[in-house]
Amino acid sequence: MIRFYFHPTPNPAKVALFLEETGLPHEVIPVDTRKGAQHDPSFLAINPNGKVPAIVDTDGPGGQAARVFDSSAILLYLAEKTGRFLGDPADRPELLSWLFFIATGIGPFSGQAVHFQHYAPEGSDYAVNRYRREIARHYRVLDTHLAGRDYIVGAEYTIADMSGWGWLNVAARVLKTEDDPFADYPNIGRWFAAIDARPAAARARIVGRDHPFKTDFDETARRALFPSNYPPAV
């Protein structure tokens, strides 16, 4: 059984998509990050970095329980565990390269673009400009790569596509636009539409909908989400 620690944000969405694709038995355990549940000692014992997603596999290697945190690590772990969505073994170097391009580029730059456009105080023009331009650059890299391709790596749907879907799913928020976020990236738009049309993607979108996650962005949420902005409690 997989215990899946979840909040409805892009990185957990990747893992939700994998679990929905495979039907791997799992239990969704809500972590309400706007209430600060990610900082609870019980969760820090699973992910010392205090972030979602994380999993505990009660039937890990050697029959021992295994914790895994960070969405890319989880995708690799589950793909290796099930033997699915790893693509052709000959494409493994490409798979790792694109998986970590998303993990170290598209993901964090998207997160910073969202932060400075939606949450930071007004006057952060330099940061907004930097992260918007950097995410546009990353989108162009991926868009160029996807020309003439159905999937990010090789001829098969893999965990690289799942990882990309998690963040491209919120492209409109990242780019702060009400228009088509892929208008300038037609290859991404075509690829994303195909991944998003999969039945598992529709199921992944509604994971956790039955839990009343905190939606107010008040002082409690700010302190929970951005604790480094506040002095430590004495």
From TrEMBL:
<dbReference type="Pfam" id="PF13409">
    <property type="entry name" value="GST_N_2"/>
</dbReference>
<feature type="domain" description="GST C-terminal">
    <location>
        <begin position="88"/>
        <end position="217"/>
    </location>
</feature>
<dbReference type="InterPro" id="IPR040079">
    <property type="entry name" value="Glutathione_S-Trfase"/>
</dbReference>
<dbReference type="GO" id="GO:0016740">
    <property type="term" value="F:transferase activity"/>
</dbReference>
<dbReference type="InterPro" id="IPR036282">
    <property type="entry name" value="Glutathione-S-Trfase_C_sf"/>
</dbReference>
<dbReference type="InterPro" id="IPR010987">
    <property type="entry name" value="Glutathione-S-Trfase_C-like"/>
</dbReference>
<keyword id="KW-0808">Transferase</keyword>
<dbReference type="Pfam" id="PF13410">
    <property type="entry name" value="GST_C_2"/>
</dbReference>
<feature type="domain" description="GST N-terminal">
    <location>
        <begin position="1"/>
        <end position="86"/>
    </location>
</feature>
<dbReference type="InterPro" id="IPR004045">
    <property type="entry name" value="Glutathione_S-Trfase_N"/>
</dbReference>
<dbReference type="InterPro" id="IPR036249">
    <property type="entry name" value="Thioredoxin-like_sf"/>
</dbReference>
<protein>
    <submittedName>
        <fullName>Glutathione S-transferase family protein</fullName>
    </submittedName>
</protein>
